[in-house]
Amino acid sequence: MDENNEKAFLRCLSNLVNLKSLDILGSVGNLDYGYENLCPGPQQLRSINVKTYEAIGAVPRWLTSLCFLSSLDIKIQNLGEKNLQVLGSIPALSNLCVRVTESTQDEDERLVVNSRYPFLCLRRLEINWEVGTMELCFAPGALQNLGVLDLEFVVRERDSNFGLQHLSSLEHVYAKLRCGETSFKIAAVEIQTALDMNRNKPTLTLVRSDPIRVALTVQQSALMFVGAVMGKIKSTSPLP
């Protein structure tokens, strides 16, 4: 969508007061445009699924005005402080799935998640860093209601303990690690050690994925998408 269509979409959405589920498909550049609230807004909205080709740059701030939104699936460019603050301020959010397409932090830095990011109702969190490593570190008091954590990231040569011992309600961790066998074994020990320190004694499921194969799969998917677009352009071109 271009800018005019995106603004028209938000105006239309603000009038769908009884809408309970929303799927956004295709290509969307921006869903924010300075809107703090949608008035009157879809206040009955429970679920939003953003399945777009490109990642959006900023998590829409108007999501925080949706009092009953409990499930969100979104693809964003980065999981920096501003985006995390918006996500953490969605009042009823209990199930969050985030796909991240770009690295935000330096390899030796992590964004500390603490009580400044409320996530008052969050029970399940899934984050997939498509190209990067784990960029978060959980501080004491963070995500106090989180029960299930699902992560996918590239393992780098650094500490794989990112504060899992501080998630007081954690019940299970599922992690898909993109790395070689040696790095996988080291990371597995570090993650399990952190969970052993957690008073709730969460269980752990670890899966290793070959990063080279993942890169080839992503490249093949991109080529298929480009081919489909070019075929559509060719089929719609006027005859000479």
From TrEMBL:
Residues 2-204 form the Disease resistance R13L4/SHOC-2-like LRR domain. Pfam families: LRR_14. It comes from the Eukaryota. The keyword Repeat applies. InterPro entries: LRR_dom_sf, LRR_R13L4/SHOC2-like. Keywords: Repeat. The keyword Repeat applies. SUPFAM superfamilies: RNI-like. This is Disease resistance R13L4/SHOC-2-like LRR domain-containing protein. It comes from Panicum virgatum.
